[in-house]
Amino acid sequence: MSAPASARPPVHDSHPDFQSETAHLKGTVDAMLRQIDFWEDRDRQMGADLETSIILADEAGEHAAMLSPHVHHPYFGSLKVRVGGREQTLYIGKHGFRDVKGPHSVVGWDSEVGSLFYSDALGWTPRRGGQGVIKRRRQLDIAAKTLHRVTDLYDDEAGGDTGGREEVLLRRLEEGSTAGMRDVVETLQPEQNTAMRYSAGTPVIIQGAAGSGKTTIGFHRLAWMTNAERGPQQARAEACMVLMPNRVLATYAARILPELGIGAVNVTTPESWAIGLLGLEKLEVTDRTLTLLLTDHDNTRRALAWRRAKLLGDARMLDVIRTHLWNRFNAALRGQALREEVALNQREPQTFALTDTELHAILRDVFAADPLSGYRTGFRRAVEDLALSQLNVPDDEEASVLRQLSAPITALLGRVFASTTPVTEARRLLGSPEALRSSGLLTEREIALLGTDPLSGIPTPRRAHADATELPLMLAVQAFTGGIGRQDGRNLEPFDHVVLDEAQDYSPLLYALLGRATRPGHLTALGDLNQGMHGYKGPSSWEAVQAVLPGAEVLTLGRTYRSTRQITELGARIAATYNRAAQVQGVDRDGAEVQRYTAPADAPYGELPLIAQAVKDAQAAGHVNIAIVTRRAVDADRLAEALRDHDTDAQPITTQEHRFRGGLVVLPVSLAKGLEFSAAIVSSANAHTYDESTEYERRLLYVSASRALHWLALVSVGELHPLVA
Question: Do the beta carbons of residue 277 and residue 483 sit within 8 Å?
């Protein structure tokens, strides 16, 4: 296994242009250093006055700080192009740089020109007109200001495609895993690049198998969205959000953001975002449906819990809740009225009054407008606007009049809206067959299903709690009553862009709410229907998501890059038993055969000696980041402790509070999902642990077996699972 690029010693490349490229690299580094020195010299940042000089110096300092990290690795590729009969070479890097005094400029990877480096297209039309032709694409491996290797990807004079792109990709894939997600700016493949740069302002659903680079592409798309070239579709990093299934994965993935220049993006989980928006940070979120699926062997009860959870996340529930709130607020308005005397300058006091009928009409208009800020705020503003209009209030007296009306309007809102809180209202709705029936959207069988409690045998916390399957309903109540979106001080605004990782595990109802909370068209969903471990919360198909996100496009990644051919083929064998997505193709990267460790069913120490041996074998093969994957968190806890008696010390990751810092870890499949390791060991890989007859269990096995980049081991006391034997 080769070392990471930053650790490789300089090599003398035999490429004929190695020396000239080395000279150009030195020139670029020198030009960058000169520019940084200029920016950091405050005496040169002089304006017309002291205040202007300070502003100019601060801006120059920011520019210097942004460029400095890229001096050691100014670019990674080049394009030789011909435009209008003139040839020039463009260098592509992670950060754009303009050499005002020489030929050492760098084009940013996220620019339109930068896109040409990744595509297979040989021509394009520059913005200034004319026709451009690609003559050569070249990869340049650089670290610590030193050129290590020159690889031509395409050369018109040498006959076209050289096979270099695949060569570079395989070199990168041979590298070991890290304790955080890595950017793929240097090795984006054409299909990944196309998905990443899909039309800004269009909702995108990216379907791809394990290892196809979905999550990485989502982060890179977010960085691409922040480029000024996106124009009116440009996103501000601080106004974007990424939702990931758990905090372990969120921490693992977020480390890539500063490298992409978008460190201000908020990376969180759906549960954390939801309870923050609800203002219930102390509320404990459980997922009792998942607990039942992992622990209960009664398939009838499991199926009932699955169906009920799916119904709770059905997109129709949005209108069920809307109808319920309309009935509640209309009932609360009966007999209400507003009457207040208002003092105006140099005029007789005037009375502002609204009858029961007029208040009902205002509520109807607010529901029709469906404001982002919610019905309560919308109702208040409508009443205030009507008062200012009816009383003919001058602009300079508006603030005074609104102050006088504040108390009576607040009292009215309290009588109508105050008793409607997201948690209690969602549960009140579920507990009332009459309320569920009023929308006319649910069948009697569905209403009866919502009234069942298949989770009654699963313990609940003693403190205030909500189940993950209930949260979208509570969010819907919040969206209609108090608003939904990004909190900016006291203001609520739409997110500039939202990325959903593991998108197959988000309910259609949650998609509808996120579409409401985000600028139109600015949602990117990354998922794999084959990995739907939490399918009871997710859509049955991407068409269900498209139904609530108008104009959404589904893009399919047809290649997986993570694992060796041997590991990819094993995963494909498992997925083929329930595969609903397009067939995927692995990179032709040969590796070690999948290792299988078994012992008799009556082995005195069970599978512990086998796992310990597998760890030693993986370490002997040169692997450092190794995962032992269990089916449940309780299994991981017990295994981590028991392995110490076998001279094996593994860090347990059993809750979302734990962090993956590299090395040997033991963790359940629910927390391993989304992570990748140089080597992985699947414990208890047998039909007793992963029920062969249940699709959900086969999904778990697929996720467990697809975590490894280079080396995979399957361990079992007794026979291995038929799908992996």
Answer: no
Query: Is 544 in the same domain as 577?
Result: no
The CA distance from 418 to 412, in Å, is 9
Ranges of beta strands (E only) in 283-376 are: 284-286, 338-342, 350-354
Domain span including residue 122: 17-188
How far apart, in whole angstroms, are the C-alpha atoms of residue 130 and residue 115? 18
670: CATH: 3.40.50.300
Beta strands in 332-416 (DSSP E): 338-342, 350-354
pTM of the model: 0.88
Binding residues: 208-215
Measured distance CA(388)–CA(375) in Å, rounded? 20
Q: Are 553 and 691 in the same domain? A: no
Residue 611 confidence (pLDDT) above 70: yes
DSSP-assigned beta bridge partners for residue 667: 629
Residue keyed to tokens 């309910």: 507
What are the tokens at 511? 């998609």
Q: Are residues 182 and 239 in the same domain?
A: no
Residue 204 lies in a domain: yes
Residues near 608 by beta carbon (within 8 Å), at least 6 away in sequence: 639, 642, 643, 645, 646
Query: CA-to-CA distance for 422 and 657, rounded, in angstroms?
Result: 27
Cα distances (Å, whole numbers) of residue 449 to 306, 376, 438, 446, 584? 11, 32, 16, 5, 37
Whether 223 is in a domain gets the answer: yes
**Number of folded domains that form the chain:** 4
Amino acid of residue 103? P
Residues 333 and 279 in one domain: no
SS3 readout for 108-122: ECCCHHHHCCCCCCC
Cα 689 to Cα 208, 602, 604, 641, 717, distances in angstroms: 27, 17, 19, 20, 11
Ordered alpha helix ranges (H), 41-148: 50-67, 112-115
Looking at 483-623, list the stretches that DSSP marks H as alpha helix, in order from N- to C-terminal side: 508-517, 542-546, 565-575, 608-620
Q: What is the pLDDT of residues 317-334, one digit of tens each?
A: 999 999 999 999 999 999
Query: Which is it for strands 204-208 and 664-668: parallel, antiparallel or unpaired?
Result: unpaired
Annotated binding site for ATP: 208-215
User: CB-based contacts of 34: which residues, under 8 Å, 6+ apart?
Assistant: none
Same-domain status, 593 and 656: yes
Q: At which of 405, 432, 457 does a domain end?
A: 457
Domain assignment present for 111: yes
DSSP state for residue 721 in the 8-state scheme: P
Domain of residue 212, CATH code: 3.40.50
| pLDDT at residue 583, as a whole number | 64
Range with the poorest average pLDDT among 323-327, 523-527, 671-675: 671-675
In a 13 Å sphere around the CA of 721, the CA atoms on its Cβ side amount to 29
Cα 549 to Cα 203: distance, rounded to the nearest angstrom: 7
Burial of 8 (0-12, 13-18, 19+ CB in 10 A): middle
* Final residue belonging to a domain, choices 140, 160, 188: 188
